[in-house]
């Protein structure tokens, strides 16, 4: 079994509304996959189906090799951080984790190590009611990791975290991957997410727009690479004219560089020519970002889809 999660023609209806409408994809084991889509795309519905909290209306869903609906023992193998986790304010962080460890039949000896791992040791015995939003989110992550789950679902995990705490969270996500765990992580913060995921599932209005590794999605989209060149002093007008004659439009930027959109197919050839050009003193290449890919796919609420997964 190579997939932590696998679904085919998965559908969930609420009356006439299809919150998920015949989606098929998988989350490979040991990978970190971003679950992306605008509000109402169907992300939470998919997470609830994976957790076995709701039943599908149609299609097939396997989580760690089992159908999750009514599979109570499976829940112990899955960690879940909900989008806005609320906890018993009168318990301390340690008491809450002790209590949840008992419910999950996980070893209570993990509690101190988990509090340390999420940076809450100093506040472990304080009431959760006194925690900041970021501290509650870190406590939520600690409870998701109780029992060393094989699959971890994180719904908007960096909401309310400062940049340092977000980096810490992604460090833990990296450790989970290194340890062979699978992670499905929903987020709207594409630039923040991009360096930490192996691939993405992109939903729009209940349908799957695209799924796969970022490299595969980039190849599918065939978006141009952005090349920034710094011309030698006084060489800008002549260079713009020459590039335009060669079929490249060059936009001057406020920082004195020229921005070129270089088609993927001719990227290497163009780069060789640019590197050899005596009018150019510096050059940077930027691959399309996840945010550009997301826009190109038309994942926004109003846009039309360009790629069927
Ligand atoms: N229990 C429910 N009853 C009726 N409609 C629902 C229910 N749950 C979700 N929906 C609808 O299903 C669609 C998908 O909702 P879902 O919560 O899965 O979206 P989402 O991608 O998680 O959005 P967000 O980013 O806002 O959390 C929405 O149109 C939503 O209104």
Automatic annotation (TrEMBL):
Keyword ATP-binding attached: yes
Lineage top rank: taxon: Bacteria
GO MF annotations, alphabetized: ATP binding; ATP hydrolysis activity
Residue ranges of domain ABC transporter in the record: 5-230
Coiled-coil region: none
Keyword annotations of the record: ATP-binding, Nucleotide-binding, Transport
Database matches in PROSITE patterns: ABC_TRANSPORTER_1, ABC_TRANSPORTER_2
The name this protein goes by in its record: Copper ABC transporter ATP-binding protein
Biological source species: Rhodanobacter thiooxydans
Lineage of source species: Bacteria, Pseudomonadati, Pseudomonadota, Gammaproteobacteria, Lysobacterales
């Amino acid at each position: 079994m190579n997939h932590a999660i696998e679904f085919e023609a998965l559908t969930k209806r609420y009356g006439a509304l299809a919150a998920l409408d015949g989606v098929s994809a998988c989350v490979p084991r040991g990978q970190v996959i971003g679950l992306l889509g605008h509000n109402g795309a169907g992300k939470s519905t998919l997470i609830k189906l994976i957790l076995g909290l709701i039943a599908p209306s149609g299609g097939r869903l396997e989580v760690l090799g089992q159908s999750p609906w009514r599979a109570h023992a499976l829940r112990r193998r899955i960690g879940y951080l909900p989008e806005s986790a609320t906890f018993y304010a009168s318990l301390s962080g340690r008491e809450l984790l002790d209590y949840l460890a008992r419910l999950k039949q996980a070893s209570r000896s993990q509690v101190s190590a988990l509090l340390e791992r999420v940076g809450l040791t100093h506040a472990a015995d304080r009431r959760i009611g006194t925690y900041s939003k970021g501290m509650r989110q870190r406590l939520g992550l600690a409870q998701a990791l109780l029992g060393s789950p094989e699959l971890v679902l994180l719904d908007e995990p960096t909401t309310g975290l400062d940049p340092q705490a977000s980096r810490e969270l992604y460090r833990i996500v990296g450790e989970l991957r290194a340890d062979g765990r699978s992670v499905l992580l929903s987020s709207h913060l594409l630039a923040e997410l991009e360096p930490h995921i192996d691939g993405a599932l992109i939903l729009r209005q209940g349908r799957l727009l695209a799924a796969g590794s970022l490299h595969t999605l980039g190849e599918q989209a065939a978006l141009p690479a952005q090349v920034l060149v710094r011309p030698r002093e006084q060489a800008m007008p002549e260079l713009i004219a020459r590039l335009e004659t060669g079929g490249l439009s060059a936009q001057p930027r406020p920082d004195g560089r020229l921005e070129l959109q270089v088609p993927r197919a001719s990227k290497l050839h163009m780069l060789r020519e640019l590197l050899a050009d005596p009018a150019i003193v510096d050059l940077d290449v930027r691959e399309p970002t996840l945010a550009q890919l997301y826009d190109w796919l038309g994942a926004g609420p109003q846009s039309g889809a360009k790629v069927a997964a």
